[in-house]
Amino acid sequence: MIGTAFAVLAALGCLYLLYAAYAAAGARRDADASPDGPAPTVTLLKPLHGAEPGLFENLSSFCAQGYAAPVQIVCGVQDPADGAIAVVERLRAAFPHADIDLVIDPAQHGANRKVGNLINMLPLARHDCLVLADSDVGVSPDYLRRVTAALAEPGVGAVTCLYRGVAAAGIWSRLSALAIDGHFLPNVLVGLKSGLARPCLGSTIALSRARLTAIGGLAGFADQLADDYAIGAALRAKGLRVAVPNFAVRHSCTEGSLADLWRHELRWARTIRQIEPGGHLGSLVTHPLGWALLAAVTGAPTVGAALAVGAICCRMVLLRMLARRFGTDAAPPLWLVPPRDVLSFAVFAWSFCGRTLTWRGRSYQLRGDGSLRRAGRNE
Questions:
Q1: Which UniProt keywords apply (predicted)?
Q2: How far is CA 359 from CA 13, 42, 218, 265, 346, in A?
Q3: How confident is the model at residue 236 (pLDDT cuts 50, 70, 90)?
Q4: In this structure, is residue 278 part of a structural domain?
Q5: CA 236 to each of CA 133, 189, 242, 372: distance values in angstroms, whole numbers, following the listed order
């Protein structure tokens, strides 16, 4: 009986993957657009932490924008010995005409050190159009033009961007990129197509200074793990929408070990479980291979084995559709798909066991409201 239940979940999961492939194939690239009137001047805020692989290339992509208005780039670190400082100096040498500022400020403003870094950086921002983008993001030369065009649309309070995975090096970063391309990205596309997802992602949050002030500034998000989600929710509470242009930026995956990969993915799985419990539980249907394998060992071996093969084939179809649509790397070798899907299933299952997570080498407890508390500290 239980094997049959697992087989049904696996079959539903295969149908889900095919629907996700349909959603990816049905998405169309936006036509080139420009905001009405002159392009706004922009301040890019780049919170940094360490000289991570690909940092120089990612930052360089923001310096190489084909944009018609002045752009200020503010980089920030909280440790005077941070290795990212040397990368910023190299960036200044490579782009001598770029307007690049560096903030080195150890002041802490809450448990979320990235938001604290942004709070330290914000006083140097000279322009009213602010674009917050994580350090591991790389973009195309038309990125700012497309983002500001979307921000100029009526009723838009902020713009965010989908992202695809790019492996920095090694098997673990390849598996991390595959999690983005084969799990995260299609899930968001299905959510957008169905109207169930309302993303606001750290890959890009573009908004005006006035909008940021209207939601209380950055200080109100200094203890939130999912600060990007919380910013989007605050804007929607003001009757504004978060636009998602129909393109994807690049997210560099730098995990160097299974432990790094597990901690990273478990952190985000538990975050999603906290902020979207219904959606997280509903995502059980996105793991057909895991359910098929359980079916195979709990009384339905033939059906389970057939569904396992079907799940792998459906995932490959989905990856090829996404590669065609977003310019992701070619579909990965077949042998990578099963371990990736099994690992994703294990992360999903373990995400329900506890609230502890690790972020940048520190342990935290996740509170019921999505805020963070350093593990071992009293309230």
A1: Glycosyltransferase, Membrane, Transferase, Transmembrane, Transmembrane helix
A2: 31, 30, 20, 11, 19
A3: very high
A4: no
A5: 20, 20, 7, 23
Does a structural domain hold residue 151?
A: yes
Residue 5 lies in a domain: no
Sign, CA dihedral 208-85-65-248, equals: negative
Please report, for the domain that includes residue 86, its CATH number: 3.90.550.10
What's the Cα-to-Cα distance from 198 to each of 41, 179, 271, 368, rounded to whole Å?
27, 20, 15, 20
Domain hosting 90: range is 42-259
The rounded distance, in Å, linking the Cα atoms of 278 and 244 is 22
Look at residue 309 and give its three-state secondary structure.
Answer: helix
- H or E, element range at 340: helix 337-350
Query: What is the per-residue pLDDT for 329?
Result: 54
Exposure letters 43-61 (e unless 16+ CB within 10 A, then b): bbbbbbbeebbbbbebbbb
**What is the mean predicted confidence (pLDDT) over 25-45?**
72
What is the H or E stretch that residue 157 is in? Answer: strand 156-159
pLDDT tens-digit readout, 120-159: 999 999 999 999 999 999 999 999 999 999 999 999 999 9
Closest CA to 206 of 240, 177, 180, 167: 240
Do 316 and 337 form a contact (C-beta atoms < 8 A)? yes
**189 within domain boundaries:** yes
- Beta pairing partners, 273: none
